[in-house]
Every structure is written in structure tokens, then in C-alpha cells.
Design brief:
36% helix, binds flavin mononucleotide, four-stranded antiparallel sheet, Rossmann fold
Length: 277
């Protein structure tokens, strides 16, 4: 039986994120899945130390917290839902704390590459113009923990649990939960939204736009209706946080940066002496 894990990124009990996560899980249950629910803020997750031991030496993280247990729950799930609010234009701290520890997935990259799993990201913000960059981070979270066939929805509603009053949205989210189990899991991307990670913010240079989340590029075209981003063909594209993208990141960037540090560590220590006050 398919197991769907719902993650809540808000500490607000019965807030909009929790309601949306439960509604999507209900859709998954009605499609025959076994479901499980976890509030990230109930976990004890320490900030990443940046020691890189997990990536370079492939040894367990030295921090003693709930991160290994969370990873086991994520590995055991066939699909995942992450619902979280926008806090000051980005994801809430509980989501980012866990996301920052994502390099702990490196030992499992082969496993993740073998079975691309579906994920559903639900962001809830007070107001659309204030939505910031929360949703792309929720998608990155899911991708980084092995859920690379992503669907997503940005929702707008401020008061605690107020989303329950929006019947159309609740029906949509129920259906997205069902789709996680029965498919299709991917909605066609909206115009000018990255088709890989659903980001709608870009870095611009000359006539190119680059998605900062996954690296996909688009040509900026001017049409009678305004600007159009003509994306590279995303079929088979391995973004930054897919298993292959992460392996490349580790082999081409993290490991050489460790070797460079080791080669220069005495010089670095000597140069820092005058800053040790
Ligand atoms: C500390 C804090 C910061 C917030 N920042 C934003 C923001 O930057 N943009 C926005 O649209 N809404 C913002 N909101 C509104 C929440 O995203 C919104 O109320 C959401 O429905 C909360 O979800 P929850 O009930 O699951 O906690 C903020 C709310 C709080 C408490």
C-alpha cells in the first residue's frame, strides 16, 4: 500500500498549513493510501554545523537530534506533502533548518535515483504580492529529500484555519492529494514559471533568465502580450537538487573545496591570528 507522509511547516496548530496538509492526506487516503502526519516544529532539529563530514567523509552527522529519524520517515514514504506558511517572504525556520541538513541524503542518492517519488508542495501566504519565495523552497525541500515528481499550489489566506471557508480551494487540494496516489502528479506549468521547480523568480542577464533554484535557463522573448520566458526543454533535465544534480554538486564542488581547504589550512590559520581577539 502507498504510504503518504504529510509534513506541516507551521507551529500554528490547526492553522491553514495543517488544514491543507490534512485535506490533501484525506484525498490520498480515499485513493487507498496509508497516511502519516508530522509537524516539523515538534521535532528537535539543530542548525547545520557546516562541517561537511556527511558529504566528504560520508560519516553520520555529529549532531544528536531528530534529523536521522525524519530522514527515515521520508525514505519510508512513497510520496510526501509539505504544507507551510510564508514567513517574511520565505519558508518558516523549521522548514529551513531541516532543509539545511539535506546533505545528509548523500548516502542515499543511488536509492533516490532509482525510484523518483511524487511530492506535493502547498504554500500558504497572507497576500499574493507578499508571497515572496516560500513555495520554491518547499519544492526544493521535497526534491532534496527524494520527491522529484513535484506538484505544487500557492494558496492565499491569512486567519488561522480560514482556508476551511474556501470550498473551491479545499476541493482542489483534496484532488491534488488523490493525484499523489493515482496520478497524474504533474500539472502543466503556468507561463513564466520554471517547469522544473515551479519557481517564479529568476536572475536575468542579457536575453537569458536563470532559475536560481534548479539552474534551468530560458530565453527572454518579447511578444505582443508582453514578456515570455522560453525555457530549455526540461525533459530529462537534472536540476541542482535531483539525485544526479546533487552528486555532481558533491563531486565537482564540495569535495574539491574540502581538498583546497586542507591544502591551505595552515596558511588560513596563520592569517586568522590577527582576528583572534
Ligand atoms: C511571522 C509571520 C510572518 C508572515 N509573513 C508573511 C509574508 O511575508 N507574506 C505573506 O503573504 N504572509 C505572511 N504571513 C501570513 C501567513 O503566511 C498566513 O497567515 C498563513 O495563512 C499562516 O499559515 P498557518 O496558519 O499555517 O500558520 C506571516 C505570518 C506570520 C505569523
Amino acid at each position: 500500500m502507498t504510504t503518504v507522509l504529510g509534513l506541516i511547516g507551521s507551529a500554528r496548530k490547526w492553522g491553514n498549513s495543517e488544514v491543507l496538509a490534512r485535506q490533501a492526506l484525506l484525498g490520498a487516503q480515499e485513493a487507498g493510501a496509508k497516511t502519516d502526519l508530522l509537524r516539523l516544529s515538534d521535532l528537535h532539529i539543530e542548525p547545520c554545523l557546516g562541517c561537511m563530514r556527511c558529504a566528504i567523509k560520508r560519516v553520520p552527522c555529529p549532531l544528536d537530534d531528530d534529523m536521522p529519524a525524519l530522514i527515515e520517515r521520508l525514505r519510508a514514504a512513497d510520496a510526501a506533502i509539505l504544507a507551510a506558511p510564508t514567513y517574511i517572504l520565505g519558508p518558516p525556520g523549521a522548514v529551513k533548518l531541516a532543509l539545511d541538513r539535506m546533505l545528509m541524503m548523500i548516502p542515499y542518492l543511488d536509492e533516490l535515483a532509482q525510484q523518483p517519488k511524487p511530492g506535493l508542495a502547498l504554500s500558504v501566504s497572507g497576500l499574493s504580492p507578499w508571497r515572496g519565495v516560500a513555495l520554491p523552497f518547499l519544492i526544493t525541500f521535497l526534491q532534496g529529500f527524494g520527491f522529484t515528481r513535484i506538484n505544487s499550489l500557492a494558496c492565499y489566506t491569512p486567519g488561522p484555519g480560514e482556508v476551511l471557508l474556501d470550498d473551491a480551494l479545499m476541493a482542489r487540494v483534496h484532488d491534488l492529494g488523490r493525484q499523489l496516489v493515482q496520478g497524474p502528479t504533474i500539472s502543466p506549468p503556468a507561463a513564466n514559471v520554471c517547469p522544473v521547480c515551479h519557481s517564479d523568480f529568476f536572475t536575468l542577464s542579457a536575453d537569458r533568465a536563470t532559475c536560481p533554484m534548479c539552474g534551468l535557463q530560458a530565453r527572454i522573448e518579447s511578444t505582443a502580450d508582453g514578456i515570455r520566458l522560453a525555457f530549455e526543454d526540461p525533459t530529462g533535465y537534472e536540476g541542482h537538487w535531483t539525485p544526479r544534480g546533487m552528486r555532481q554538486f558533491v563531486e565537482e564542488w564540495i569535495i574539491p573545496s574540502g581538498q583546497r581547504f586542507l591544502a591551505h589550512r595552515h596558511e588560513i590559520k596563520a592569517r586568522r591570528a590577527r582576528l583572534e581577539f
